[in-house]
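EI: anyone free to look at a 192-residue chain?
SC: sure, send it
EI:
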Amino acid sequence: MAYVILPNSGESLGFTRPQVRENFLLIQNVFDNNHYDFNAVNAGKHNVIQLPEQTTYPLTPVNEGQLLAREYNSKTELAWRPENTAAADDQYILSGMPIRAAARFNLTGVTSGLKFNINTVTVNGATNYDITFLTQFPIGAASGNYLVIASGCTTTGVAFSCGAVSQVAAGFTLVTNAPAIARSISFIVLGG
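SC: here you go
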């Protein structure tokens, strides 16, 4: 079914009623793709956004940016082009540093509150912790190519240092200089 502009020259609107109904049906079917139904509570809003991969970067005019899908490292990724750009390097791949894991835990390795993609936190020595992920990343690769940002806090609010070592796809060791009055350690894992 194709959308038809109606009425044609010399036709009455009543004569084209079946085609008008087909046009409205076509509009409804197209709108139903990625949108809430016309009669739903969220009518007119997107329920998902699909962006076909672009083979080239389109030009962006002044005062307009573009959100698009583009191939990056053999995968379709979300990209952004700022205003008034023409060069191929004037884009930003937005999915390059996703949050892969995060947690907060006490000195005995018990997590509290925030916990994302963490399987275990195990005490290793006096102040070190072995951390394993629920889902390894990059998926299917044996790589520790990710960034761990960690911090610790004492019961008096004084911070102490933390750092990740022995990074592999399955997890890492968090080395700290946690004092006896340490209250919690928090970390976030980016990239991968």
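EI: The mean pLDDT is 80.
SC: 👍
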